[in-house]
Amino acid sequence: MAESIPAPAEGVFADIWALADGIPGWLTRAQAEMLFQQARSLPEGALAVEIGSHRGRSTVVLASAIRERGGRLVAIDPFVDGRLFGGSRTRVEFERHIAMAGVENMVELVCDYSTRARTSWTRPFELLYIDGKHDYWTVSDDLKWRVHLPDGAPVLVHDCFSSVGVTLGILRHVLPSADLRYEGRAGSLALFRVGRPTRADRLRILGEMPWCVRNVFLKVLLRLRLRPVARAFGHDSPYDPY
Ligand SMILES: C[S@@+](CC[C@H](N)C(=O)[O-])C[C@H]1O[C@@H](n2cnc3c(N)ncnc32)[C@H](O)[C@@H]1O
User: Which residues in the chain belong to E strands, given as ranges?
Assistant: First the structure.
């Protein structure tokens, strides 16, 4: 019967993106597609963990992809009141958005700091998405969640090689590590995979440094309100490169 034939990934993704793109956030289409493809490749009934959910833009993409395979998503965000991300109001929007996408029953919200939630976490899971606080110390701690992942599992990091804190965390804890390989990126969304890295994997991380320096330079220009100069360097947006 026609209804039992799974829709091709591209058609499914287009529908999910049409929903997610209406949710304010920083995830680009190419990044959403990378998240979607990694989540969709997980085994049946898999559990994924997202650190930093905000209004649910990435949550909806991940959860929709995992739902196809009977999986679940743990979304961790403290929803603390503040100028940048908002607190209880953002949480209300997050809940509205996951309900709108029909994934509210398979998303478990952990309303806490990832660093605090990690200390009592014991459940194994199959995908880690890191997009919480971007300072070096928090990112360093968030990378430790990977001890719960099996070999071959994807670790996706947003604002990688564009935020100084995130990049320092990667250089300090991933570059010399023996258990994470770097595969590539969609904009600032980097894809790592649990497994022994080769010398080439490590060199690929270092190969991103010129792009990282460019991004920091563009951020400085934007802080100095030199948008026309940033535009001359190919960045035609008021927002930081991500
Ligand atoms: C860049 S936003 C996440 C964007 C989201 N992934 C999306 O696609 O729209 C960062 C989020 O991280 C949350 N956050 C900040 N510190 C955190 C922490 N220690 N643990 C988990 N989330 C944190 C903030 O509340 C904010 O909602």
Answer: 47-51, 72-76, 107-110, 127-130, 154-157, 180-186, 189-194
Ligand 1 atom closest to residue 54's alpha carbon, by position in its atom list: 27
With contact defined as beta carbons under 8 Å apart, do 77 and 106 qualify? no
34 token code pair? 């990378």
Indicate if 175 and 96 belong to the same structural domain: yes
Whether residue 181 has its Cβ less than 6 Å from ligand 1? no
- Closest approach atom of ligand 1 to CA 27: 8
Specify whether 101 is located in the same domain as 215.
no
What is the model's pTM? 0.93
Task: Indicate whether 129 and 217 sit together in one domain.
Answer: no
The domain containing residue 229 runs over which residues?
210-242
Kindly state if the Cβ of 78 falls inside 6 Å of ligand 1.
Answer: yes
Q: Is the distance from the beta carbon of residue 25 to the nearest atom of ligand 1 less than 6 Å?
A: yes
Shared domain check, 95 and 201: yes
pLDDT, tens digit, 9 for 90 and up, residues 180-194: 999 999 999 999 999
Per the structure, the count of domains in the chain is: 2
Q: Do residues 93 and 123 both lie within one domain?
A: yes
77-124 pLDDT per residue, tens: 999 987 777 788 999 999 999 999 999 999 999 999 999 999 999 999
Same domain, 195 and 215: no
Specify the ligand 1 atom closest to the Cα of 114: 20
Q: Is the CB of 140 under 6 A from ligand 1?
A: no
Residue partners of 152: CB distance under 8 A and separation at least 6? 193, 194, 195
